Amino acid sequence: MSGSNGANSEKKEFVQYHFKHAIGGFFEFPTVNARKILPPHLHPVEPHHGQSVLSVMAFDFHKSMVGEYGELILSVLVMPRVAPGAPLPRSAFYPFLLGTTTKASRDHAIERWHLPHFMENIDLSFDAQKDKIEIAAAHGGKPIIDMSITQYDWETVSHRYQSFMHDPAGSYMSTIIMESAFSENEEERGEITVHDHAFTADIDRGNVNTTPFRELWMKEGLQTFHPLETLASAAV
Amino acid sequence: MATRISNTTPEESHLNDAAAANGGIADFDYSNFYYSSADDIFAIFDPYNEWWYGHARDNGYYLFSQPMSTPPRPRIELEEQLGHERLKLLNLASYNYLGLSYHPEVIDAAKNALDHYGLGAAGSPILSGTMEIHVQLEKELAKFKKKDAAMVFATGYSTNVGLIQALMRPGDWVIMDQNVHASIVDGAILSKANVRFFRHNRPDDLEKKLGGTTGKRLVIVEGVYSMDGDEARLPEIIEVAKRHGARTMIDEAHSTFLYGKDGRGVAEKYGLEDEIDIHVGTFSKALGGMGGFVAGSQALYNYLMGFARSRVFSCALSPAVAAGVLQALKIVQREPQLRDALWSNVAYMRGLLGEAGIDVGESTSQIIPIMIRNDRKIFGVAQSLQRAGLYLQPIIYPAVAKHRSRFRISISATHTTQQLDEAAAILSDVLQAEGLR
Prior knowledge:
CATH topology of the largest domain in chain B: Aspartate Aminotransferase, domain 2
Shape of chain B: globular
Distance between the termini of chain B: 47 Å
CATH topology of chain A: Acetoacetate decarboxylase-like
Low-confidence stretches of chain A: 1-10
CATH class of chain A: Mainly Beta
Strand content of chain B: 5-15%
Low-confidence stretches of chain B: 13-21
Structural class of chain A: mainly beta
Order of helices and strands of chain B: HHEEHHEHEHEHEHEHEEHHHHEHEEEH
Oligomer: heterodimer
Number of strands of chain A: 12
Largest sheet of chain B: 7 strands, mixed
Strand order of the largest sheet of chain B: 3-9-8-7-6-4-5
């Protein structure tokens, strides 16, 4: 599968993934670290000068073309792409490492979306409580990341995001629509522990804030990927 | 073809309408238009203006920058920007804390200087723009602050930008409270020094952020923070900074002329004036003018004279404003009862708000946030307040964190207790009607 469709395709194919929970934490970390992770054509968003955003997201998919699986995503928030005629997204991400609980989901995401993966299955657990949800990611009995996210008011939303991908073959972008019950806050009540593990080797762990400045929790939702676009001008 | 910010394209007709409405144009704010990449600088204008004219302006952003036709007194008139109706409002939005912007002596001093010097200084302060009135103001400020010297800048913003840029260099460290004013952040960026932010008012996090730093280090805090109205935990923060050998700077924009027995600021209140290396203040708050100043050693003054680029490459403060500010400074020193009246009003208003069960956050100062904590509702509340006769500015994300939206009350010494009663009653009624208390 090429995984690359033109932006002006006559017939667009949307790929959908249904999830029980999708949770995310935005953590400030040094822009020096973000720059090392990002390809040269992508630029980080800075909530504070010198501080970029590490996004840690975890999905609990229960229905997809590759069945049920869990997914842990490490991303850097980057500047969205503005193009004539295209809707403006809420924000944009550069996922630099994903871990999944099944080989089928991993193979699918690599082939279809050019997403970089940790090449072994990980263990990912979700513990939804009254006011918060905790995830624990591990591999071979060794912890990778523990994160808790707290809830705020819930509303039903549809949010548009851009995801940028980059590999030796080229640079790509996909629009992603997230439809779900949604809770978001900046109450600084969540927490993360980033463990020493090959999965987290690209992160300067000592300089990642352990409290998320933004916490997101989506429930019973649908993630829709637009077809992959090849970014010819950014193929560096 | 123009870029759109509407949430769905025709190909996405499967999307739920209610969900699309929530995540669409109404969900955007200024932060969505700051960062973008495109092939054309102007590409962001289309979606920005679609948002502005299609949603933001008419749904509440018109409440910002409404032109006032009166001085910023407790009662003002302004032109509402949607219907262009002229409104008479009770004003709790201006930071004219001592009411000096319209004090007769201040106006007379400015008028006399206008007659004497003309409108502008017609030069940079380091060339031909320094006039006798500027020198008088700097000497009076230094005497008031009990420092060797004080340097006047044309604005408060340029004070912080010029000061920090002048002192710090690549490889140095600027370590500041995460809630400091944008001018401090911009000065640090311009200096190209390394920057770290410590969590608001957390000496333990400052300790952490100072760890591993070497060389020239400057720790920066404010006396009173402008969005929450809380004071710096100055004794603990200065202790940490000094123990690490860092220099310290305090911006007392909202506390100079108000705090301390003699009005020199929060540093005076805590007896730390000599412990702090650099003191910054503005003329636009308590003195009701404009401009800013740095107070410290003569050596600091001499160095800034040569290297504070925002001052070197700007025209000097208007001599008329300098004269008005100088007179306001004399009044502040001559009439400490103005500060007493302010603090009496602050206590009175705080009591009224407390009795009404209104959430005022962490404030301990003359800046009292009315916490709404609902980003969707705040503009509706602001419109209701204005219709009820009260002028307050909504403060929303990204100026404050998500769901920390609030109105910012600025108490003045010139408010009467009747006016504060009226304001508290309007707030109480509107918040109750909106289900927010």
